[in-house]
Design a protein that fits this description.
This protein is an alpha+beta fold and 537 residues long. It folds into four domains: 2-74; 97-185, Roll (Pdz3 Domain), CATH 2.30.42; 189-326 and 337-413, 2-enoyl-CoA Hydratase, Chain A, domain 1; 418-520, no CATH class. Helix content is 41%, strand content 20%. The protein is built from 20 helices and 22 strands. The strands form five sheets. It has a seven-stranded mixed beta sheet. Strands 3, 4, 5, 6, 7 and 8 form a six-stranded antiparallel beta sheet that branches. Strands 1, 13, 14, 17 and 18 form a five-stranded antiparallel beta sheet that branches. Strand 17 and strand 18 (334-343) form a beta hairpin. Helix 1 (2-22) crosses helix 3 (34-53) and helix 9 packs parallel to helix 10 (296-306). The radius of gyration is 26 Å and the shape is globular. The chain starts with a helix and ends with a helix. The relative contact order is 0.09.
Length: 537
């Protein structure tokens, strides 16, 4: 019986690899291949036999879905099947908007907590505030709600209404709101502000349809505030749309220069993308990357590095150099299939090797955790024993392909102790700030005036820290005396950052956390090297 089921899975897999590749391509031409007909017939026969004779009832949809995942697993880690229920979510992520009520939220102790209403969104318009606890949705209890359920109940078509009841600190009775859903923007630029009088900071979290426009607006704002140098933060950015990567890189790279090119088996997959030129091709530039920077992030940082346009700082990027195209299937699901490889201006393929172990592949490369050493790497001597192919930048510096983008200055991120992760998982600091500062937000905003002044002047007291530890203890988190002594400043920073986020949003959060960010702090000292590489001295 086991052998019979294995044969079914194999046959289904062989058939569906053909189907996935055919979608959206020249089907009539491909179907003329007799071998394709043989595979189609083989699959039909086996599926029919399974449906007719298998000992239990057969869910053919499950068989097909599992087979698609199995067959695509034989290609590469980035050729994947997308079930129908996930297609819309992915489309929203790339489109840069969705229909909903417009809140940033978290589920803390089984309670739906409003972290912040999105500026200009429908929730803010009716008076929802940071710290509100949503206890009912359309008359039904929201206590114990999951994150998936939050999306199902609060998202919906523009113009539809949803009733929510909230509990607010300092207000005796629950408050009822009727919210009309609207189009909610999903921003690619999470934060942009002046880190000091000359250095602008921009964090880009992904590459979606609106990314280049958002970046352009952020840069214009910072330029008007006196920006003379820029830190572009792409850490943790998993990538996205290739054309947006090209547009972002074009802001900094002179017109006509090659940013990236692609090569595949079919002629239409072979393209060369050149810079359209932007307003910041002369600004001293540092790009921050790490093991979570992938795909489009590596296109931007790879072009900046190959063309000696700026300094790359941080840790080696993920190493994804494959280009996918998404094809829709008849039932609303989709497949995403690799159609080409992309290459940086020097000719580097960024894709690192992958095998059958997908879990291992999707973790950071081992050298980031072990063998990669911190230090100046302008000539990439820290990789001199690498077995990867060698390439040259525009000025003749050595760089390596086949394993992500290794920075020109390697800075290992400071290790975060395990108990801090427990704090985050159990929402200790979020809950503490909600319980102790939700009623004083307006007072703090008036007292400090701006996120910048709050970061400079607000101090987290020992009393606050002891209360946070007590709350953690009640949640079963043990922190030794030494752990506390070694990390109390970091805990204080997280408390301060959460307060700042509740009042000033992402800018408040990043202004505080960057003061403890050793990669960012090192980057601020490296603009002389960035200018030298780019020939801006």
């Amino acid at each position: 019986m086991k052998l019979f089921k294995n044969k079914i899975s194999t046959a289904v897999a062989m058939f569906l690899v053909v189907v996935g590749i055919l979608i959206g391509t020249q089907i009539q031409n491909v179907l003329s291949d007799d071998n394709i007909y043989e595979q189609l017939e083989k699959f039909k026969d086996v599926l029919s036999l399974a449906d007719k004779y298998y000992v239990d009832n057969v869910d053919t949809q499950k068989l097909v879905d599992a087979a698609i995942n199995g067959l695509l697993g034989q290609l590469d880690p980035h050729s994947v099947y997308i079930p129908r229920k996930e297609v819309q979510q992915i489309a929203e992520d790339f489109r840069g908007s969705f229909d909903g009520i417009g809140i940033e939220y978290d589920v803390v102790n089984d309670t739906l907590l409003v972290v912040s209403p999105i500026a200009g969104g429908p929730s803010e318009m009716v008076g929802i505030q940071a710290g509100d606890k949503i206890v009912e949705i359309d008359g039904k209890s929201a206590i114990g709600i999951t994150r998936d359920e939050v999306m199902k109940k609060l998202r919906g078509p523009k113009g539809t209404k949803v009733d929510v009841t909230v509990v607010r600190a300092g207000v005796d009775k629950p408050l009822a709101f009727e919210i009309t859903r609207d189009k909610i923007p999903l921003y690619s630029v999470t934060a942009s502000f002046m880190a000091n009088k000359e250095v602008g900071y921009v964090y880009v979290n992904r590459f979606a349809e609106t990314t280049s426009k958002e970046l352009e607006a952020a840069l214009e704002k910072l330029k008007s505030q006196g920006m003379k140098e820029l830190v572009l933060d792409l850490r943790g950015n998993p990538g996205g749309l290739l054309n947006q990567a090209v547009d972002v890189a074009s802001e900094f790279i002179p017109k006509g220069k090659t940013i990236v090119y692609t090569k595949g088996r079919i002629p239409e997959a072979n393209e060369i993308f050149t810079s359209s030129g932007g307003n910041y091709t002369k600004i001293p530039l540092i790009v921050l990357i790490n093991g979570g920077s992938a795909s489009a992030s590596e296109i931007v940082s790879g072009a900046i590095q190959d063309l000696d346009r700026g300094l790359i700082v941080g840790e080696t990027s993920f190493g994804k150099g494959l280009v996918q195209r998404q094809f829709s299937l008849n039932d609303g699901s989709a497949v995403r299939i690799t159609i080409a490889r992309y290459y940086t201006p020097s000719g580097r393929l960024i894709q690192r090797p992958y095998g059958k172990d997908r879990m291992k592949y999707f973790t950071a490369p081992e050298r980031i955790d072990s063998t990669e050493k911190s230090g100046a790497n302008l000539t990439h001597t820290l990789e001199s024993d690498s077995t990867r192919p060698v390439y040259k930048t525009a000025s003749g510096r050595t760089v390596y392909g086949g394993g992500g983008i290794t920075p020109d200055y390697i800075v290992k991120m400071a290790k975060i102790p395990d108990f801090i992760y427990e704090f985050q998982i159990k929402g200790i600091i979020l809950a503490y700030v909600d319980g102790h500062f939700s009623q004083s937000q307006d007072k703090l905003k008036k007292e400090y005036g701006s996120a910048e002044k709050f970061n400079e002047n607000f101090q987290v007291s020992d009393k606050i820290l002891s209360e946070v530890l007590a709350q953690a203890g009640k949640a079963g988190i043990k922190v030794s005396k030494k752990e506390y002594e070694d990390n109390n400043k970091y805990i204080a920073m997280l408390v301060k950052a959460q307060i700042a986020r509740n009042i000033w949003g992402s800018e408040g959060w990043y202004r505080v956390v960057l003061t403890f960010d050793n990669q960012f702090q090192k980057a601020l000292t490296l603009f002389p090297e960035a200018k030298q590489i780019a020939g801006l001295n």
